Amino acid sequence: MDSHAPTPSPARDVPPAFLAALSARFGAQCSMAAAVCAQHGRDEGSLQAPPPAAVVFAESTQDVQDAVRLAAQYGVPVIPYGAGSSLEGHLLAVQGGISIDLGRMNRVLSVNADDLTVTVQPGITRKALNDAIKDTGLFFPIDPGADASIGGMAATRASGTNAVRYGTMRENVLALEVVTASGDVIRTGTRAKKSSAGYDLTRLMVGSEGTLGLFTEVTVRLYPLPEAVSAAICSFPSIEAAVRTVIQTIQLGVPIARVELIDVNAVRMVNAHSKLHLREEPLLLMEFHGSPTGVQEQAEVVQDIAREWGGNAFEWATTPEERTRLWTARHNAYFAAVQSRPGCKAISTDTCVPISRLADCLLDSVAEADASGIPYFLVGHVGDGNFHFGYLIDPDSPDERTRAEQLNHQLVARALRMQGTCTGEHGVGIHKMDFLQEEAGEGAVAMMRAIKQALDPQNILNPGKIFTRPAR
Amino acid sequence: MDSHAPTPSPARDVPPAFLAALSARFGAQCSMAAAVCAQHGRDEGSLQAPPPAAVVFAESTQDVQDAVRLAAQYGVPVIPYGAGSSLEGHLLAVQGGISIDLGRMNRVLSVNADDLTVTVQPGITRKALNDAIKDTGLFFPIDPGADASIGGMAATRASGTNAVRYGTMRENVLALEVVTASGDVIRTGTRAKKSSAGYDLTRLMVGSEGTLGLFTEVTVRLYPLPEAVSAAICSFPSIEAAVRTVIQTIQLGVPIARVELIDVNAVRMVNAHSKLHLREEPLLLMEFHGSPTGVQEQAEVVQDIAREWGGNAFEWATTPEERTRLWTARHNAYFAAVQSRPGCKAISTDTCVPISRLADCLLDSVAEADASGIPYFLVGHVGDGNFHFGYLIDPDSPDERTRAEQLNHQLVARALRMQGTCTGEHGVGIHKMDFLQEEAGEGAVAMMRAIKQALDPQNILNPGKIFTRPAR
Questions:
Q1: For residues A334-339, average pLDDT
Q2: How distant is the alpha carbon of residue B467 from its chain centre?
Q3: A228-417: which CATH topology?
């Protein structure tokens, strides 16, 4: 199975009349400059496709509606663009069409601190959101590393380091405003914390990767800033020892806020990139949130477990500055890794398995990666059973790409045998379409296709992503 | 708007040839006895319809598939039946057809204690599930009061008293096996804690009320039994004082496990029914889960808040027996209420609002209910902003029903103005179809209909629920 090449889908015609109509409606908000189109036709992943024919910089829901209506009239694909930080080719114009950049729709529309909710436009990034609400005593915890847009995070069902405690976008998006394939606007969900009112359109939209609608408003949950926060590093004699510590922590129900694995390769890369002096051993990077007593209790339990597995004493980072430095280093692991092999591209894996299978899945895959000779690093949101290999390939070496994709495929097959998933948080895009088929099975994918067909009969919303369309 | 009458939908023919084929396939597993059909054609709500033509007692996924295939062949509606505890007419055969009773599919298929998951057949009830796993040190927290089936709870996106801490079925169903409208089987989700693999079919199915598929396996999350549990009662001089205490508790992020409001009417009914001597004032019934220190910390915070609002000292129930007695009394509030007015029927409301609006929504609705002269009680999962009035009407008095439905409608309209939902946990069924339309709007309901049409083109899966079908 060839899972790395975009399924060949003929780019559809973008009629000049459509582009003229777009220009007439949007003026300077529409660009066909080659550099602008190129920038909107790629993401942080390793795949490539010809760029979109134009970029519309939407400034309002009405803008999005008008662009989609024009596209529907001419049967032209539209691809929503947030911060460009997706990894699986979500933004690539594999069937041609236009990009709708939502970056200018970046306002906070209403902070409801008393309800622990906020409604934002989709283009605001998670850091900007947290900055905007910092005086409320609340925060938005979902942290995928990249400073992604909230709309993009909703569209890929993102999660990241804090998900082990606070959940993913699945649990934290309460309501959406969505522009549908016809250019109409619907609202899904309410600001109530729970609801049984009909089909869960919010959850259907979250993770739909721009294929069912474009989000123009997103309401998410917020959390009180914890009274006490402590971060700690603990190094281990082996990856297994680190992972076993995590498994027991989760099984005991310790409400740890973050628990990240960093393998020795990644530690070296991070040390070099971020001028740190972390011990060159597999590390767990942890964070505890709660009352001062609660944080202390949690940390003691985890320290006891770590000690049994040969972990070293915790090194604490208690000031906000130390913690920021540590998490910045973790978040820069990807860039640190790419810099470690000049000119390379990283192929990221994203499997997630039930916690009891984490050690088996990880260790077998480490052995395979070591045997392959391809440089790699390994980081993971291991409290959720989710981890990422980054295979650092020479983009000019088809052989390296093939071998890396082979490793990825073996890893996914292993995760699926263990009742896990091919993607914990990055989404399918064009890179994992075959994996989705393996994971979900023909019947479930057929159901997804039927939903797509029902909601987007012209197949203009980010076509060629998640699954290929059957011949009609 | 007339929200209480089932939308008239002509019962479809159930051809004798279909019933003969059903009998031939299922033998003694199929009953057409009037009493059996009548029992399967009603729920705990106040609405009525003619019973289904037959009941199939499914014992396997294959049984469900075969029954659905026969129904599809003859175009006959099928209605899944769990424990019969729904409240909104979900089980009523408003368009004729047959009931598929899943009560015999009540096995635990696999306990994965190390992963904090369990896979069960849909007919097992929540109490039976907790009984079956009691030696694992884990529990399944979702507790809607009634001893509902897990399949039924998934189908209505149920929640209940523990949801404020542990979430609803939305957050706790990981994976499903589903028999589709064609009788095929698909699997949605995996046992991984999170996933971004395509459309979230699990969440689409959860809350679909039997209209998109019949669940034949359900994988849910489990939680470690808390090290310490304490329950407390606190009485207040007014409903407002009780509710303000709850609002502050939630806004401070106290991870309270249960916080239930019981109004003075319900207290009197419960005292009479359960031979208790609760103080005849508005009460909060609370439960704290955690480490011994954590539980103490939480309780102290809430006690401080309660004191400020004039709450009396907490009365503690620390032994399991005392707690069980308390929660049983709470769960029996509905039956206690119905007994308080012999021959009456209860019409339950189920609004849920953002926590900051809870006091306003509740107090205005209490004033309206008091003014109406209709006997009522009020209980609520107030930590989630969800509460239930039960209007105790004389079923032979059309006037009382009309006035009660009027109160319900005013309450729903108020909740929607406050960005809440018409149903926090009971579902739409046939009772809230008009409310759903008001809440979600025409466009969103049209999207739900399009999905229904795509996945069940013959409209045989529990037809006439959630929304009426447009003319074709």
A1: 91
A2: 18
A3: Vanillyl-alcohol Oxidase; Chain A, domain 3 (3.40.462)
